Amino acid sequence: MELHDVWFVLIAVLWTGYFFLEGFDFGVGVLTKLLARNRAEKRVLINTIGPVWDGNEVWLLTAGGATFAAFPEWYATLFSGFYLPLLVILVCLIVRGVAFEYRVKRPEENWQRNWETAIFWTSLIPAFLWGVAFGNIVHGVEIDRNLEYVGSVWDLLNPYALLGGLVTLTLFTFHGTVFTALKTVGEIRERARTLALRVGLVAAVLALAFLLWTQADSGDAKSLIALVVAVAALAAALMANQAGREGWSFALSGVTIVASVAMFFLTLFPNVMPSTLNADWSLTVTNASSSAYTLKIMTWLAVIATPVVLLYQGWTYWVFRKRIGTQHLADAAH
Amino acid sequence: MDMALAPETLARWQFGITTVYHFLFVPLTISLAALTAGLQTAWVRTEKEKYLRATKFWGKLFLINIAMGVVTGIVQEFQFGMNWSDYSRFVGDVFGAPLAFEALIAFFFESTFIGLWIFGWDKLPKKIHLACIWMVSIGTLLSAYFILAANSWMQHPVGYRINEEKGRAELTDFWQVLTQNTTLNQVFHSFSAAFLTGGAFMVGIAAFHLMRKKHIPVMRTSLRLGLVTLAVGGLLTAVSGDTLGKVMYEQQPMKMAAAEALWDGEQPAPFSVFAYGDVDKGHNEVALEIPGLLSFLAHSDFESYVPGINDTNKALQEQFGPGDYKPIVPVAYWGFRWMIGFGMASFSLGLLGLWLTRKRFLLPPALRTGEDEVPHLVLLKKPLGARLSRLYWLLALWTMAFPLIANSWGWIFTEMGRQPWVVYGVMQTRDAVSPGVSTAEVITSMSVFTLLYAVLAVIEVKLLAKYVKAGPPELTEADLNPPTKIGGDLRDADKPMAFSY
Asked: What is the pLDDT of residues A173-230, one digit of tens each?
C-alpha cells in the first residue's frame, strides 16, 4: 500500500467522520420542523447538538484541507467543477452557524423564529446536496484531458445523484431521530422513537435502491460486503429502536453511514473522480496526489493528531452525556 | 476581454471581499480569546466577582465575534479550489499542507473547546472550564500561525522545487516553510496587531461605560487591561512592522518601492509623507519627503541606496522576461499609509490613556481613586476638566475600530503590493484562476457572498451594540458555585442548565 493509497483511505475516514457526526446534527436540524410540536421542543432539539455541532463541522474543513494537501488535483477539479452546489452548501453552513449562535441572543419571538426556520433549511439543503455531490463523484462526471470539469450544473442533477441526495437526507434524518431519542427525556423522546421507525423505513428503501444501483454500476465483491453491512445495520438499527435500545440504535445507524461511505470509496478506488468522457482522463490516486514528501509529512500529522482529536472530541460527548428535556432549558436570552 | 470582467479581476475581487471581511473578525477573536482567558484566570485565582463579571461580559462579545469568524472561515477553506483551481493544482503540494495542519490541529481545538466553554459553566469544575478557554486561545493562535506560514510562502516561496514533468511546485522542506523569516515576522506582526485591535476594542467599550459612570469596578479593570494590551500590542506592532519591512525590502523590493511611490532609486532615499504622481509616466508631481528616512527603514542607516519602482521593474523584466511588474502604485502607497496611520493613532491614544490613568507613578496621592470610582484623567498634577475628560472617553470610543481599518489596509497593501504575482517570482495571478468557471458563476458567488456578508454585518454589529450597552451581567448562584465534578453535580436531575441555546 503506497502513501497515496493510505491518503485515499484517510480522506474516506474524514468524510465518514463528517457524515457520521454532522449527519445527526443535520438530522436534528430537520427535526425542528418534523418532530418538534412547540418552540420549547425546538429548543430541546437544538440544545442536544449545541455544544458539539461546531466540532462536527470541522471534519468537513479537515476533509477539504487534507484533500487540498494530499490530492490537489482532486480538490481543484471537485470544487471548481461543483461550483454552484458548493456555493449553496457554503451559504447554508454560514447561515447555520450564525443561527445556532445568535438565535438565543435576543428574546424577541420573531428573531428566534427566523433563526429556527434558518436552522431547518440550512440543515436540510446540505444534507441533500452532499448526497448529490457524492452520487456524482462515484458515478463519474464529464472531465476533459486537462482534468477540468466541462459539464454544466444541470448535468450534476441527474436521477442517480438526486437519489443519492434523498438517501443522505433521509439517512441523516433517521440518524438525527435516533440521536434525539438517545439524548432527550420525556414525551419528545417517545415521539422520536415513533418517528424513527417511519423515517428509517423510507431511508431503508431509498438506500437499498441507491446502493444496489451503485453496485450494479461499478461494484465489486468488496463493495457488495459494504452494501450488505449497510443494509443489515439499518435493519438492526430499526429493530433496536423498536426494542427501545436507543444507544444500539444510534450506533447501528452510525454503522449504516460508515458502511455506505465505505461503499462509495470502495467503488471509487483507484479513481478519485472518474471521467465519463474517457477513462484515461479520470483523476486517480496516482495522477491527482501530492509528492511522496508531502504525503509523508501529512501522514505523520494524521497519525499523531487524529487520535488526540478523537480523544478530546469523545470526551466532549461524555461531558454532555445527560439527557435534555424541556425542564432543563435556561431562561431565553442571555 | 474587458479587464473589469476578466475572470482574474472578478476572482480577485471576490477573494479580497471575503478575506478582508473574514479578517475583521480574526484579530478580535485572537485577542479577545486570550483576554477573556486572562480575566477568567484572575477570577479563578482571586475569586473577586468583578473578574467573573468581566469574563462573562467580554466572553459574550467574544462569542458573538468568533461565530462570524468561524463561518466566514469556511469559505476560505474552499475558495482556492472554486476560483483558483490552477493555483491549487500548481501549489497544492506545498500550500495544502499548512492548511491541513490548521484544520486538524487548530480548528478542532477551537471548535471543540469553545463548545465546552459555552455550555460547560455548570458541567465542568472551574479549573477545567478555565483550561477550555485557554485551549480556544491556543487554537486561535495556532490557526493564525499556519495560515500565515502559507501566506508567507506566497510572499517568499522557500523549501520547494519545481517539478517540470508534473508542472507544479513540490514541497522539499516543510520546516523551512514554517520557520522562514517571512513567516516569523508576519506572525509576530499579525499577532501584535491582533492585540492592538483587541486592546482598542476593550478600551473603547470601557470608556463608553466609564463616561456614563456605569459598571465602574468591571470597566475600570477592563480599561486598565485594555490600555496595557493596546500599548504593548501597539509597540510590538511598530517594532515587528519595522523588521517585516526590512525583510520585504530584501524579498520584494517592488512592493516597498510602491509603498513609498519611489519611482527612481535614490541614495540616501527619503520617506514620502505625501505624494501625487503620474503612474503612466512613472514619476511624482507633488512629493513631500523626509530625507534619508527611507534608507533607515530599509537598511537601518541613513545613507543606503534604495531601488525605485522603475529600476526594479527593469530588473524584474531582465529576470522574468518582458512584462509589467508594477502593482497599482496608489493602492500600495496609500494602503501602507492607512495601515500605519490608523494603527499608530490607536497606539498613541493607548499610551496617552495609560499616562492619564496612571495609578501611582508620579500621581499625587490625593488623586488616587478607589475600586468603585471612575479614575481621574490626570495630565500633570491636576485632573482634566469634565469636558476634556469626556473628550478622551469619546475619542477612545470612536477610534476603537481604527485597528480594524489598519488591519484591512495592511492586508490589501501586502497582497496587492505583491501583484502581478500570486506566488512571488513563481506564478502570476492571471495564471491562477479556474479556467472552467464561467464569469456568470463568479459574479453569482461574489454577489451572494457580498450580500450575505453585508446582512450579517448589520446583524452582528447590532447584536454587539446590544450587549455592550447592557453591560456585565449580574451573577447567579450557579455562577458562584461551579460544579466540582465533570459532567456537573447531580444535585437535582431536573435543574435547568446554566446556559442553553
From this structure: 999 999 999 999 999 999 999 999 999 999 999 999 999 999 998 889 999 999 999 9
Place of cell 480577485: B12
Which residue on chain B is closest to A322 by alpha carbon?
Answer: B487
Backbone angles phi, psi at A182, to 5 degrees: -75, -30
Detail the DSSP E strand segments found in chain A: 271-273, 283-284
Which residue of chain A has the CA closest to B86?
A76
Q: Which of B338, B317, B324 is nearest to B279 (CA)?
A: B324
Q: Is B168 on the interface with A (CB under 8 A)?
A: yes
- Quote the CA–CA distance of A167 and A174 in Å, as a whole number: 10
Distance CA A230, CA B258 (A): 61
The tally of CA atoms less than 13 A away on the side-chain side of residue B396 is 32
Supply the pLDDT for residue A334.
47
pTM, entire model? 0.95
- How many other C-beta atoms can be found within 10 angstroms of the C-beta atom of residue B269? 28
> What is the Cα–Cα distance from B16 to A275, expressed in whole angstroms?
33
Dist. CA A45–CA A63, nearest whole Å: 27
Q: Over the stretch A84-137, which tens digit does the pLDDT of each residue have?
A: 999 999 999 999 999 999 999 999 999 999 999 999 999 999 999 999 999 999
Q: Which residue has the cell 501529512?
A: A298
Q: What digits encode the pLDDT tens for the residues B69-101?
A: 999 999 999 999 999 999 999 999 999 999 999
Q: How is residue B268 annotated by DSSP?
A: S
Is residue A324 within 8 A of residue A47, CB to CB? The reply is yes
Question: CA B473, B479, B480: angle at the middle one, nearest 5?
Answer: 115
pLDDT digit string (tens) for B238-273? 999 999 999 999 999 999 999 999 999 988 888 888
Phi-psi region at B110: left, alpha or beta (left = phi > 0; alpha = psi -120 to 50): alpha
Q: Per 3-state DSSP, what percentage of chain A is helix, strand, and coil (rounded to 5)?
A: 80, 5, 15
- C-alpha to C-alpha distance for A126 and B244, rounded to whole angstroms: 42
Question: Phi/psi class of residue A158: alpha, beta or left (left: φ > 0; alpha: ψ in -120 to 50)?
Answer: beta
What pLDDT was estimated at residue B491?
Answer: 67
CA distance B114 to A52: 9
Q: How many CB pairs under 8 A join A and B?
A: 253
Can you read off the three cell numbers belonging to residue B55? 469574563
A324 contact B CB<8A:
yes
Would an 8 Å CB–CB cutoff place A301 in contact with chain B?
yes
Establish if A245 touches chain B: CB-CB under 8 angstroms.
no
Which residues have a Cβ under 8 Å from the Cβ of B319 and sit 6 or more positions away?
Answer: B425
Q: Is A93 on the interface with B (CB under 8 A)?
A: yes
CB-CB under 8 Å, B88 with A72: yes
Q: Is the Cβ–Cβ distance between B171 and A298 less than 8 Å?
A: no
- Give the cell for residue A147: 482534468
DSSP string across B112-128: HHHHHHHH-TTTS-HHH
ipTM value, please give it.
Answer: 0.94
The sign of the dihedral angle between the CA atoms of B168, B172, B176, B180 is negative
